[in-house]
Specification:
The complex is a heterodimer of chains A (about 325) and B (about 400).
Chain A (H helix, E strand, L loop, with lengths): L9 E12 L2 E12 L3 E5 L6 H8 L7 E6 L2 E2 L5 H4 L2 E4 L11 H11 L4 H14 L15 H13 L5 E5 L7 H16 L3 E6 L2 H5 L3 E6 L2 E6 L1 H8 L3 E7 L2 H13 L6 E7 L2 E6 L2 H14 L4 E7 L3 H12 L1
Parallel strand pairs in A: 3-8, 3-9, 6-7, 7-8
Antiparallel strand pairs in A: 1-2, 1-4, 4-5, 9-10, 11-13, 11-14, 12-13
Helix pairs in contact in A: 3-4, 3-5, 4-5, 5-6, 8-11
Chain B lengths: L1 H17 L1 H23 L5 E7 L4 H12 L3 E3 L1 H9 L3 H9 L12 E5 L3 H6 L7 E4 L4 H32 L7 H17 L14 H32 L1 H7 L4 H31 L7 H25 L3 H19 L10 H7 L3 H15 L3 H31 L3
Parallel strand pairs in B: 1-2, 1-3
Antiparallel strand pairs in B: 3-4
Helix pairs in contact in B: 1-11, 2-9, 2-11, 3-7, 4-5, 7-8, 9-11, 9-12, 9-13, 9-15, 11-12, 12-13, 12-15, 12-16, 13-15, 15-16
The chains are: A alpha/beta (about 325), B mainly alpha (about 400).
Chain lengths: ~325, ~400
């Protein structure tokens, strides 16, 4: 855990903002704060209102109701000097594909008021950071996905913004590049930049210091990953790898629903494995194996594991439905 | 502020620089179009394929044919004449005749001239023989030219022959009269015809060179289409690629974005305009009789009106493709009301009024006026008022759409 104590206060304060498109409520009375210097994750499935929220915070969309302060400034009147302190990397690659890496960075830098030596220094920094040295004259389509992503991030932080908004920055990027990308985010965050990142990758959400979990426009959980798990997933998870996940799932769900498994809270399919959430690990483990054996289901690898964020996510969504 | 505007303008020029095909189109497309139009319309209409069928086959009819042959307007096609004579069904023969061209080496005839049997006799008897002209209306302009030239030639010929016949009957001689006499009579008749001829002076385009009419129109049109296209595409591409949103979150005011984009679109249009103005003058000798500085200043004003239209198109469409299609649609209508293809003065009253709502209509008047007539603001101020009004209307609408897009993006 990094020390952010030298930076106090919230850079984003959102009070009950909603956004309606006609009769459709995209964001429903959302409230959260983002402390300075944090990596704040905005987690949720596609179409849950993540992008709409980001766009309201950037001043691209006016909220239908509620207030949102970014750097102490109402987003409804996003002043130029506030915008100059924000960075934005949108879901789509929004650098110019026909301009070279260097031309793109120069345009972005100048747009944010950088020039001369300062501009050159920052471009140098970004080229080094994104590992793009020697590719200044290439155009983005000639770069691999990971490189493009880092270039876009570089363009967003060129002007050393106080807050950088990243909208699903790693969608469609291979795991290795994703890891490299997150290393960069830590580096940027370490320099005091607040990072507001949306994602639907659970592993990425685990990297965040604070999370807001948005589902159908409403925040259904928020806090540090550990807090969310502790609050919404008390207990342990029995992870069992059956011969036939579908059949075993059927058997265990029936047993769970008829109360035959002591301590079990929930049974869910997790790839080829089954997760049984429990408040009594030993008793549940014993009964689960017994139930499977009785039903003639084979299994291997039975473990008691700490619950993951994904377990919490599934649990939360099931609770909603 | 200036830095931000120039940053946008520079970036858009870089797009142009990197997109070589577009660059070539922008730099040479307009110029080559105007050169081709200028050359194509610069020449006189002559060497029109004409078929003469002589049923009289007399000395007189042959000398009429010789006279027509001497006229540069006509190029006689004898093979076609033979084919026509050999076909007894006249309708069928006419169809054959006027569809016989293969367009490459042997263009289809624009006119058929038939000299009837008894042509010579009737002339000498002081009667009025009829020469039959059949025109190919599918080729309206050339056949009209051919008709005018043939009428003049035949009337002159008839007058001379009549005079000769008269002279012969008076002196009790046989026709034909002697060579000296005939030359003298011809001279007298021609002189007489000349005294009654209209004395024609052409102002503003002394040689009635059609290139002087077509090339300024083409330049005006090119200036318009290049500018509106550059404006629309430069903005539409940002919307299509999602980079527009990126511009909107940058610390820039909407009008700075628009002005920045205007500069690069204006550069494209204006560079073309200067190039075409120069080519027009050097290659086709189109003069600039009025004030060149005034023309150059007014061109900027006109461009702002068209830029607004280009941006408006980009604001109501989502992709470059859509923008391009809308521009084509607009261009078709604009050409009609510009007076380029059809003079506005010859349109029905309603259309003449509607034409006022098309900026290019006013620009054509201003451009032609300054180039050819040396007229100034005192004459075409109504055009300026119209342009100013349209400019305010169009740019106001553009700003409104821009604001709306800013307010409710999705």
């Amino acid at each position: 855990m990094r020390n952010n104590n030298h930076n106090h206060g919230n850079v984003i304060e959102v009070q009950q903002i909603s956004k309606m498109f006609g009769s459709f409520t995209a964001v429903d009375s959302v409230t959260f704060d983002v402390p300075r210097g944090q990596i704040f994750g905005f987690l949720g499935p596609n179409g849950s209102g993540k992008t709409t929220t980001i766009r309201m915070l950037l001043g691209l969309l006016a909220p239908t109701s509620g207030t949102a302060l970014v750097l102490g400034n109402d987003v409804r009147k996003q002043a130029l000097n506030i915008r100059a302190r924000l960075g934005y990397m949108s879901q789509k690659f929004t650098l110019y594909n026909d301009l070279t890496v260097e031309e793109n960075l120069r345009f972005f830098g100048r747009a944010y008021g950088l020039h001369n030596q300062k501009l050159r220094d920052r471009i140098d920094y970004v080229l080094e950071m994104a590992d793009l040295r020697g590719r200044e004259r290439e155009t983005p389509p000639n770069l691999s996905g990971g490189w493009r992503q880092r270039l876009a991030l570089g363009a967003a932080i060129l002007h050393e913004p106080d807050i950088v908004f990243l909208d699903e920055p790693t969608a469609g990027v291979d795991p290795l590049s994703r890891r490299a990308f997150w290393d960069l985010l830590y580096r940027i965050s370490g320099q005091g930049t607040t990072i507001f990142v949306t994602t639907h990758y659970m592993d990425e959400a685990e990297h965040c210091e604070n999370l807001a979990f948005i589902y159908f426009g409403r925040i259904i959980a928020q806090g540090a990953p550990g807090e969310i798990k502790a609050e919404h997933l008390p207990g342990d998870v029995i992870q069992v790898t059956p011969g036939s996940a579908a059949d075993a799932m059927h058997v265990l769900t029936k047993a769970h629903q008829s109360g035959q498994i002591p301590g079990s809270v929930d049974v869910s399919l997790y790839g080829a494995q089954i997760h049984v959430l429990t408040q009594n690990a030993d008793a549940t483990r014993h009964q689960v194996l017994h139930t499977l054996e009785q039903a003639g289901q084979s299994y291997s690898d039975v473990d008691v594991i700490p619950p993951s964020l994904e377990d919490a996510f599934i649990r939360l969504v099931q609770a909603q439905n | 502020m200036l830095n931000r505007i120039l940053n946008i303008a520079w970036k858009d020029l870089l797009h142009l620089w990197h997109n070589r095909l577009l660059l070539i189109l922008v730099l040479f497309g307009a110029a080559s179009e105007m050169l081709l139009i200028g050359w194509a319309t610069g020449a006189d209409v002559d060497d029109l394929t004409t078929v003469i069928v002589d049923y009289d086959d007399s000395t007189t009819s042959r000398s009429l044919i010789a006279a027509l042959e001497d006229n540069d307007t006509f190029n006689l096609d004898d093979d076609a004449a033979d084919d026509y004579r050999n076909n007894d069904d006249r309708d069928d023969a006419l169809d054959d005749l006027f569809t016989s061209g293969n367009y490459v080496f042997n263009p289809e005839p624009v006119m058929l001239i038939e000299i009837p049997e008894g042509f010579e006799q009737q002339l000498q008897a002081g009667e009025q023989p009829e020469v039959l002209l059949t025109l190919n209306g599918a080729k309206a302009l050339p056949s009209r030219t051919a008709r005018r030239a043939a009428e003049e030639e035949i009337l002159t010929f008839g007058a001379i022959e009549r005079a000769k016949a008269l002279a012969a009957s008076e002196s009790g001689q046989d026709v034909p009269v002697s060579a000296e006499q005939s030359a003298a009579i011809e001279q007298i008749v021609l002189t007489q015809l000349e005294t009654t001829q209209a004395n024609i002076t052409v102002r503003y385009n002394e040689d009635l060179d059609r290139a002087h009419y077509t090339t300024p129109s083409e330049a005006a049109f090119v200036l318009y289409i290049m500018t509106i296209m550059a404006a629309a595409l430069l903005l539409a591409r940002e919307r299509e690629y999602g980079t527009f949103e990126q511009l909107l979150v940058m610390p820039m005011r909407p009008f700075e974005i628009i002005i920045g984009k205007s500069i690069s679109a204006m550069f494209v249009g204006y560079a073309n305009f200067i190039l075409l103005l120069g080519l027009m003058n050097v290659v086709f000798g189109v003069p600039v009789r009025g004030s060149l500085p005034l023309l150059l200043v007014l061109a900027i004003g006109y461009l702002f009106v068209e830029l607004g239209r280009g941006f408006l198109v980009a604001m109501v469409t989502r992709t470059q493709n859509q923008a391009l299609l809308v521009i084509m649609l607009i261009a078709f209508v604009d050409i009609t009301f510009s007076g380029y293809a059809v003079p506005v003065e010859s349109m029905p009253d309603v259309m003449q009024f509607v034409a006022n709502f098309f900026p290019i209509r006013h620009w054509m008047i201003i451009l032609r006026g300054i180039l050819q007539k040396d007229i100034g603001l005192s004459v075409f101020w109504p055009q300026l008022v119209w342009l100013a009004g349209l400019g305010i209307l169009i740019n106001g609408a553009t700003l409104w759409f821009f604001r709306r897009t800013l307010g409710e993006q999705r």
